[in-house]
């Protein structure tokens, strides 16, 4: 496994170097990176993110039937797990990832998936309060402007609805911090902000944090649930 991380880091060195030089994530770099990952993304990262993804979807499936927006739907790996009572719209910045998602929907015959669209999560061309729940899984660490994404998730979610997030937030000490350091080459390859500060998305007046729990392998990720107020 360490050899894999090293190989990935070498393969994507130029992309990671550009990101570090600018100290921000470039939208085109993200799009180009995931275009390359699309054919193998599920095989490489499906297991790593599976428990966090399932925790978020399980929470959503306990909610009354409604319209769900999944930002960063990617290859659509989560789509088969949603309750068929929900109606799902998925967006992603990568057309190549969405091509994989559309194949998945067609092959698995998922009638609850209403739309899969190329869109910028930080600038959604959607009406206010048009969804009952919005969810972003492993997205905030790769977008150029996480605050803009949070604002859009809040805007398109109806009052009383839920905004659900799963992400990694760094720990400076302990074994989780040690693991985070070891995963740094892989995170750089994918354009993740492993140093993403959770305070960047907390404190909004239109979102009230109602649940926070560790999920995923060894509790490495965090599930956050907000109520739209």
Automatic annotation (TrEMBL):
InterPro entries: Methyltransf_11 (IPR013216), Methyltransf_Superfamily (IPR050508), SAM-dependent_MTases_sf (IPR029063)
Record-linked Gene3D superfamilies: Vaccinia Virus protein VP39 (3.40.50.150)
Single GO MF annotation: S-adenosylmethionine-dependent methyltransferase activity
Residue intervals of the Methyltransferase type domain: 69-164
SUPFAM superfamilies: S-adenosyl-L-methionine-dependent methyltransferases (SSF53335)
GO biological process, one term: methylation
Keyword set, alphabetical order: Methyltransferase, Transferase
Name of the protein in question: Class I SAM-dependent methyltransferase
Native source organism of the sequence: Kaistia nematophila
């Amino acid at each position: 496994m360490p050899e894999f991380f090293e190989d990935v880091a070498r393969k994507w060195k130029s992309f990671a170097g550009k990101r570090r030089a600018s100290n921000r994530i470039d939208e085109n770099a993200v799009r180009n990176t995931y275009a390359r990952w699309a054919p193998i993304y599920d095989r490489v990262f499906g297991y790593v993110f599976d428990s966090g993804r399932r925790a978020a979807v399980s929470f959503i499936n306990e909610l009354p039937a409604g319209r769900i927006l999944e930002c960063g739907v990617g290859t659509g790996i989560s789509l088969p797990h949603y309750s068929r009572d929900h109606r799902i719209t998925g967006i992603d910045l990568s057309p190549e990832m969405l091509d994989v998602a559309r194949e998945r929907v067609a092959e698995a015959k998922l009638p609850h998936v209403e739309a899969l669209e190329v869109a910028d999560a930080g600038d959604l061309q959607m009406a206010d309060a048009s969804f009952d729940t919005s969810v972003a899984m492993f997205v905030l660490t790769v977008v150029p402007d996480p605050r803009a994404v949070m604002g859009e998730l809040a805007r398109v979610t109806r009052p009383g609805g839920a905004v659900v997030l799963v992400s990694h937030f760094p720990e400076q000490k302990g074994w989780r911090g040690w693991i985070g350091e070891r995963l740094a080459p892989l995170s750089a390859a994918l354009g993740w902000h492993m140093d993403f500060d959770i305070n960047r998305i907390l404190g909004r007046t239109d979102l009230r944090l109602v649940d926070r729990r560790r999920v995923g392998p060894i509790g490495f990720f965090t599930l956050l649930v907000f109520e739209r107020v």
